[in-house]
Design a protein that fits this description.
single chain, about 400 residues, alpha+beta, Ubiquitin-like (UB roll), about 25% strand
Length: about 400
């Protein structure tokens, strides 16, 4: 359900909501929030909430304070919080004091890309398939590297000891208005996957953000620890994020040429997208795994880095297999749409049935990926210089720390 500001205030009043979490992503994809008492919400909806942006990673280019403006349509109940004195969350847009959108606000970037597609008479939906590990806690409640089971792909209980936890996660998500399609045990010990229905890009990013929060909270309440790290166990299957993008026309069927151009636009910008899809040094270990993704583009290989599948029903479907769950979903989805828009504007076509975009093109480590990003004229045209500079600078710090 999409709420208006008036309906949000009515819900807060009628459901004994005591606290409202104003939620956003920093540029790196980490969820941030500030909790305000519900009595302050009417004023915040109108005037915003002032915060110190210089303390948030990725926002240090802003010299002054910024404002959080809640988006009423994103009202979400947090079911693991107390039932008496309910707690809800609202995603927020980030603006400058003069009312203009802050250039590093990835939520706004995604909405802008979606609007540009709509002006072309095109609609996009995104689905995700998300992998994560569940580990035991020690006697003091600290995370360990011991997985909760030794089960494998599609195994069943009792070998699969994550079955009940996945059920609790899915029930919590449904209480939040987020409906998964399926769940199962993955290849690695203690590794799980939950998949989601296609929906419009902004909602897909919102669902992914709250999904990770639900997984972490439900696991902790169950005496366990959830990890979305790309390679949390040496020698075991890594955890990735498969992104499925469907494009179709609004009303009449889109021409095959437009659908192909969108898909090939994403393919052509693969190297530029990698540092955002694969957002940590360990993410690049995923690129060496044979199951997904392989280091090339192939329309027919499910393990290809990007698989573009034009369909005969006036739609095209793209699978992006390299991403990790630590990336910023709003920023990643925005860049995917912008790459598709680039393809449409430049009438991109496939160079061959299996056009290789890997091997000699794609980076093999995070440092090389960031080098490509810094030199990309396309990224500079899509993102502000401040976003790109902040992202690269922060990620290079991550690389240095990983080597210590």
């Amino acid at each position: 359900m999409k709420y208006t500001a008036k309906e949000v205030l009515q819900y807060v009043d009628e459901n004994d909501v005591k606290f409202v979490k104003l939620t956003f992503c920093d540029l790196m994809g980490r969820q941030k929030n500030v909790s305000v008492v519900s009595q302050q919400l009417p004023s915040i909806l109108k005037n915003g909430y002032l915060f110190n942006s210089s303390a948030v990673t990725g926002f240090t280019n802003c010299a002054g304070d910024l404002l959080l403006f809640p988006d009423p349509k994103t009202l979400t109940v947090l079911p693991w919080r107390p039932q008496t004195g309910e707690v809800v969350s609202l995603l927020t847009n980030i603006k400058r004091p003069d009312g203009s959108f802050y250039e590093s606000d990835a939520l706004h970037l995604l909405e802008t890309a979606k609007s540009e597609l709509s002006k072309m008479g095109l609609a996009c939906e995104i689905a995700t398939e998300c992998e994560f590990y569940i580990f035991k806690l020690d006697s003091e409640g600290n995370p360990t590297s011991t997985p909760i089971d030794r089960a494998g792909y599609f195994d069943a209980a009792p070998d699969d000891e994550g079955e009940n936890i996945r059920r609790d996660i899915i029930l919590s998500l449904e209480d939040m208005g987020i409906v998964p399609t399926s769940s199962h045990h993955e290849n690695g010990p203690g590794q799980n996957e939950i998949d989601f229905m296609p929906t419009e890009p902004y909602k897909a990013a919102r669902n992914f953000l709250y999904f990770k929060s639900a997984v972490k909270n439900v696991c902790r309440l169950s005496g366990m620890h959830a990890s979305f790290e790309p390679t949390p166990l040496i020698g075991q299957t890594g955890s990735g994020l498969r992104i499925l993008v469907t494009l179709e026309s609004i009303g009449e069927k889109a021409s095959p040429a437009v659908l192909e151009a969108f898909a090939q636009g994403v393919v052509s910008k693969s190297a530029d997208l990698i540092p955002f899809l694969n957002s940590t040094p360990d993410s690049y270990k995923l690129l060496t795994e044979k199951r997904a993704p392989a280091r090339e583009y192939d329309n027919h290989d499910r393990c290809a880095l990007i698989r573009a599948l034009p369909r005969g029903d006036g739609k095209c479907r793209i699978e992006i297999n390299s991403a990790d769950c630590l990336s910023n979903p709003f920023l990643v989805f925005a860049l995917i749409l912008e790459a598709g828009l680039y393809g449409i504007k430049h009438k991109c076509k496939a160079k061959s049935e299996t056009y290789p975009v890997a091997g000699d093109v794609l980076p093999h480590d995070f440092g090389a990926a960031l080098d490509i990003a810094e030199k990309s004229e396309w990224l500079k045209s899509v993102l502000s210089d401040s976003i790109l500079d902040e992202y690269v600078k922060a990620k290079r710090v991550t690389i240095r720390k990983s080597k210590l």
